[in-house]
Design brief:
Length: 226
């Protein structure tokens, strides 16, 4: 009902504008098109602001809907249930004509909208991947720091034990009779068969020195060479 009133107002307004133009023809050959356009847009704004009922060709109804925005491919409607977009292809021909629906322009607008959405999604994915990479880098840094701290504590412990065990213990050069490795929280120290190190044999284990550090190894894998 409100839409009929708005259209009636629009018709009256356009008729008034035409009468004004006709009455001015005798006074001047020039009409101010800007004022006429503003007047028509004002009347259209009144029409858009009024609530109306819309029904699709499939029978779905939008009661007491306010037109929030008119786009080339459809209407954005505001109802009590929220905001919805109804495409002109879903609406009757009279509604399409009322809002000057153009299939070619609508197709171009839809294609452009899809492309914009695709680009936005790509940018979001790229941003998420970048953030994930930064988080992974930070976690790796924390892991390395934790491993370094574990190694430092182990070396300090081994140094104390070495200092305590070296008192009165003779030191010799020993050769490894087999490969051996020591793991420190992800860091692996490898000793190869045939390598020789300076060290000492204790009660239940042996110690060999490499690069200024002492490492605990089984005494059974060492053979004294001097």
């Amino acid at each position: 009902m409100l839409d009929h009133v708005a259209r009636a107002v629009l018709r009256e307004f356009i008729s008034f504008c035409r009468c004004r133009v006709e009455s001015k023809k005798t006074e001047s050959t020039h009409v101010n098109p800007q004022k006429t356009t503003i007047a028509i847009l004002a009347a259209l704004s009144v029409s858009l602001a009024l609530a109306d009922d819309f029904k699709t060709i499939r029978g779905k109804e939008y009661k007491n809907a306010t037109i929030n925005r008119v786009e080339p491919d459809g209407l954005v409607l505001r109802t009590k249930s929220g905001i919805s977009k109804v495409y002109f292809t879903e609406l009757p021909q009279d509604v399409q004509e009322r809002f000057h629906y153009n299939a070619q322009q609508a197709a171009q607008f839809t294609s452009q909208t899809i492309e914009e959405v695709r680009l936005a999604q790509q940018q979001k994915i790229a941003a998420d991947n970048k953030r994930a990479a930064e988080i992974a880098k930070d976690l790796e840094l924390v892991r390395q720091q934790e491993e370094a701290e574990i190694q430092r504590q182990h070396e300090a412990k081994m140094q104390r034990q070495r200092m305590e065990s070296q008192e009165g213990i003779p030191e010799h050069t020993y050769e490894l009779t087999q490969d051996y490795k020591i793991d420190f929280g992800g860091l692996t120290i490898r000793f190869r068969r045939g390598e020789r190190y300076h060290g000492r044999i204790l009660v239940d284990h042996a110690e060999i020195d490499r690069d200024g550090r002492s490492y605990t190894v089984p005494s059974g894998i060492l053979r004294r060479v001097n």
